[in-house]
Amino acid sequence: MVGYFENCAKGNISEIELSSPFERLQVKVPYSEMHRELKDMYRLSISQRIGTIDLGHSTIEYEGLLAICLYGYGINETLPDSCYANSPKYLKIKKDWHLEKECPFTVSFLREFLPFQLLDRVRVQYLEPNGYLAPHRDSRRLGQLNLNMTITDNPGCLFHFENHTPFAPSAGEVYLIDVSHIHAIENASSATRISLIVTGTLDTEKVKRMMSPALNPIKEEHS
Predict the structure, then answer these.
(1) Distance between CA 74 and CA 112 in Å, rounded?
(2) Dist. CA 103–CA 53, nearest whole Å
(3) pLDDT per residue as tens digits for the range 97-116
(4) What is the signed CA dihedral for 157, 122, 199, 77, rounded to 10 degrees?
(5) Mind listing the pLDDT tens digit for each residue in 27-42?
(6) Which is more confident, 76 or 82?
(7) How far is CA 200 from CA 44, 71, 147, in A?
(8) First-to-last CA distance in the chain?
(9) How far apart are CA 61 and CA 46, in angstroms?
(10) In whole angstroms, how large is the CA radius of gyration of the chain?
(11) Cβ neighbours of residue 142 under 8 Å, at least 6 residues apart?
(12) Where would I find the beta strands (DSSP E) of 164-222?
């Protein structure tokens, strides 16, 4: 599996059509084991807690947001590839998995589970209490899908999509999100929310199997 994700994905305009800007996959991930490893990686996350992310076509305001990368150019290279495109430094760097010794279960699981042909980035995101990502769109290309995996239960942590009712994903749930739609997230809970955001070129057939309740009866985890 090591060579499977070696190349940089060139975009993720998917053939998969969602019924809304977000759709839950009919799978659950082993969030308890992943949480035990990822909560300890909080100390390695980028420490800037207030600021903006420049996407080129727009900026995102945030507060209380920290992140690390499990796959990409490096642990602290957490931004989209477009943010590094003009730097000669990154032309010489081969993307790879990181923190395998610190997070052996998580990395091993993701290698087998992720429904991607090629990966761009696997980002662990920590959103502190009262933190937020202001309304934004990550891409202007309709059909740009990211995979969002929730690791912690935070009932007061809400996703907002334009013209849709806010919702709070539960631990273990996995969503496809069309990031060309305007969306925001706020953490009104008393605990830090941990999630994984994965970008790349999706494996259409594998995703379609994950979208089918008949093929994937969800088994709840009891931690």
Answers:
(1) 21
(2) 27
(3) 999 999 999 999 999 999 99
(4) 100
(5) 989 999 999 999 989 8
(6) 76
(7) 24, 11, 9
(8) 29
(9) 16
(10) 16
(11) 178, 180
(12) 173-178, 183-187, 193-202
